[in-house]
Write a structure and sequence with these properties.
The structure is a single chain. About 40% of the residues are buried. The chain has 16 helices and 17 strands. The chain is of the alpha/beta class and about 450 residues long. The strands form five sheets. It has a six-stranded mixed β-sheet with strand order 3-2-4-5-6-7, covered by helices on one side. A four-stranded parallel β-sheet has the order 14-15-16-17, with helices on one face. Bound molecules: iron/sulfur cluster (SF4). Iron/sulfur cluster (SF4) binds next to helix 7.
Length: about 450
């Protein structure tokens, strides 16, 4: 594509080019055929999601050279990462949608392209809007009025048929939609039944093909070794929808990693539940691969895992007690007790971690003063272990659809502020990071909005 001449367009093009130039790409495919893969958030969030890279690779396998796009509020043209093709040159928009408030970014993209938001207001000349991603596991209602096609759950087992459907769509929208409607777990006609299950990722090991310093993981190649979670925490969508869990055996990981040149980011619900953790660490140690993990549980942490993480350059030790007291952890079925948490934290000190980050969720009806006092006494015990820096990350409970907590009340702002005040007054010497109330409220809103309300909202 030629460089844009208008200064606004050039600014946008240059911004996309900065990220494009940062990427090391391990494979590529030529030719833009009018299919855009859009992550409706900024580049950092997009590049930190394995799905953005993986979905592109899956379609490439079937000769659909989709190009990647991301979102910024000030964008007008939306240039692709690969060939800087403006979005309006595409006939098919594939949205990889994971986080509820991003619905506003999807709507903004469609508006800026002059495409009606509601699917029943579009015609055969408008691009086909296909939406897939984690959102389809728990909040299908949010995409129903917008998407011409919803791809429910994992893509791997239906990508071949969907690619065929896209090829038809590119020639004739109506015939393409008819074809796609026949695929299991692909919804064109809203009345269709569907099932949720995890693709067996041993058959096709998901690994990213882009490495960029702008990812939240740093310059790492992402590899998914487990899909779903064996646990049942009541607030968690993954623990309540993505079953049965699929793990990749170490032999397959070894095949992939034996020639690995880059550090890796290991993606799984929690690495400590990976059934062959020691064998995995053997491989990483043997091939001298530096790595990070997306999450670990306090009850499964080993000194060896911590040592290797430290040697890989990780400085902050992160664990998620989630509940501020044992009572709250029991309410949420976290299956963790204080002794396990303290043992894990002691291990962190023994392996020389001096920064620790602890995740908590607040906003339960059952919470009372005693629970907060228990948190204070726990943090005092953590301080005595000798960490230089202790950070608490506090999030309000968002009672998500498809979890046992759905239907619970969302904390009001006054109570959230009271908790914030109490923590600042009582938890001295720790850093406190509170998730934005506004953003959480928005997440809760989109989690509970009815189809009618949503249609009204988008019709404005
Ligand atoms: S362990 Fe983590 S991923 Fe698994 S159910 Fe609990 S919160 Fe969810």
């Amino acid at each position: 594509m030629r460089r844009p001449r208008k200064s606004d367009d050039f600014k946008e093009y240059s911004y996309v080019k900065k990220f494009s130039d940062s990427e090391i790409r391990l494979n590529s495919i030529n030719g833009n055929r009018g299919v855009a893969l859009i992550f409706p958030n900024n580049y950092t969030v997009a590049a930190s999601s394995l799905s953005w890279s993986w979905v592109q690779q899956l379609f490439w396998e079937y000769n659909i050279p989709v190009e990647r796009y991301f979102y910024e509020k000030w964008f007008k043209k939306f240039y692709s990462i690969e060939s800087f093709t403006p979005l309006d040159e595409n006939k098919v928009f594939l949205f990889s949608f994971h986080f509820e408030p991003d619905i506003e970014n999807i709507v903004d993209i469609l508006k800026k392209q002059g495409i009606p938001i509601l699917k029943n207001q579009r015609n055969e000349n408008h691009p086909t809007i296909i939406i897939g991603g984690a959102i389809t596991f728990f909040n299908l209602e949010l995409v129903k009025p917008i998407a011409d096609v919803i791809v429910i759950g994992d893509l791997e087992d239906k990508v071949e048929q969907i690619s065929e459907g896209i090829n038809i769509l590119l020639k004739d929208k109506e015939s393409g939609l008819k074809f796609l409607d026949k695929i299991d777990n692909v919804i064109v006609n809203e009345q269709k039944n569907y099932t949720l299950s995890n693709f067996d990722i041993s058959k096709k090991l998901p690994a990213s093909h882009i490495i960029t310093r702008f990812s939240e993981f740093g310059e790492k190649r992402l590899i998914e070794i487990g899909r779903g979670c064996i646990r049942r925490c009541k607030f968690c969508v993954m623990g309540n929808t993505k079953k049965p869990v699929k793990f990749v055996k170490p032999e397959l990981i070894k095949d992939l990693l034996k020639d690995e040149k880059y550090p890796i980011g290991i993606i799984s619900a929690t690495i400590t539940d990976y059934p062959w953790l020691d064998e995995l660490l053997d491989i990483l140690e043997y091939y001298e691969i530096k790595f990070s993990v997306s999450s670990m549980r306090a009850d499964g942490i080993t000194k060896r895992l911590l040592r290797l993480l430290k040697e890989s350059g990780q400085n902050t030790y992160t664990i998620a007690p989630e509940g501020i007291s044992q009572k709250i952890r029991d309410v949420m079925l976290k299956d963790l007790n204080e002794e396990e948490l303290l043992t894990a934290l002691e291990m962190g000190r023994m392996e020389d971690f001096s920064n620790v980050k602890l995740y908590y969720i607040v906003g339960f009806d059952e919470e009372d003063n005693e629970d907060f006092n228990e948190l204070k006494s726990f943090i005092d015990k953590v301080k005595k272990l000798g960490y230089k820096s202790i950070t608490l990350s506090i999030n309000p409970l968002i009672p998500k659809k498809n979890t046992p907590f759905y239907g619970r009340k969302f904390i009001n702002e006054r109570r959230y502020n009271e908790i914030r005040k109490w923590m600042y007054e009582n938890l001295k010497g720790v850093k406190l990071h509170f998730e934005s109330y506004k953003l959480s409220k928005k997440q809760n809103l989109y989690n509970n909005i009815s189809l009618e309300e949503l249609i009204n909202l988008f019709s404005k």
